[in-house]
Amino acid sequence: MNRRPSAFAFLAPLLLLAACGKAAAPTPPAESVATVDGKAISKSQFDLYVANIARQAGREIPEDQKSQLLDQYIGMELAAAAGEKSGVTKDPKVEDQVALAKLNVIVDAQLKKYLEEHPITDAELKPEYDAQVAAMPREYHARHILVEDKATADAITAQLKGGADFAKLAKDKSKDSSNANGGDLGWFTLETMVKPFADAVTSLQPGQMTQEPVQSQFGWHVIKLEESRAPAPPAFEEVKDRVKAIVQRKHLQAYLEELRKSAKIEKKI
């Protein structure tokens, strides 16, 4: 795989020539927030720790709480130093955990870098939005009457075929909590219903009811489809950021697939 030369590769000869003429300038020390047994805790590292805490808490950390977080961080530094001395870092399990943590950090940084170097264009978002809208499931509005046994369901079906009011029978006979609303389930998608119920709904036209009771793990259903509709999608601008995230994820999947194709991989499990 071709790699772009780093900026340092171009600067290295110049730095070498400069070093021949004079001593290199000392690197300014990083700003620190504390020292622990002579080891400085850099402000950038502590700021990252605070940012992680804020992300987990879902809120910004007030300035007056950062001193407490610094105390916690110092405690972590002390515990880590003690661990180094006690040899826990040589434990194979600990080594694996450290390696995995490092792997996650590097992967996250590389994927962010890839997205920065391959930004998503607005031209890519609208087609993805249209595809997502097209994939939105149809919505259905139905009523049902749920009973324990088929004989009862058959009797209810016969009454309905004879002209009985569906909502009234649902209130009187159904064991489902929807009975208070005349068996009305409101609007739903098929994915939210058990398969026998969903299959029965899709076989009906608006205004029709099942000619035979439908069995599910909940009992026996008598179902009436009131109406169905295509879903109302949100406006593009409302979900633009979510669409962008979907496109970014697809780009990363394609990038990882290219890396896989160019690598020699041997699985042993």
Summarize the structure.
By secondary structure, this protein is an alpha+beta fold.
Describe the overall structure.
With 269 residues, the protein is an alpha+beta fold. It has 3 domains: 28-88, Helicase, Ruva Protein, domain 3; 91-136 and 234-259, no CATH class; 139-229, Chitinase A, domain 3 (Roll). It has 9 helices and 6 strands; from the N terminus they run αββααααβααβαββα. The chain has a 4-stranded antiparallel sheet, sandwiched between helices. A hairpin with a 2-residue loop joins strand 5 and strand 6. Helix 5 crosses helix 9. The two termini are 27 Å apart. Residues 1-25 have low confidence and may be disordered.
Please state the CA-atom Rg, rounded to the nearest Å.
Answer: 32 Å
Query: How many DSSP-defined strands?
Result: 6
Per the CATH scheme, the topology name of the largest domain is Chitinase A, domain 3
Approximate shape: elongated
CATH architecture of the largest domain: Roll
What order do the strands of the largest sheet run in, or round the barrel if closed?
A: 4-3-6-5
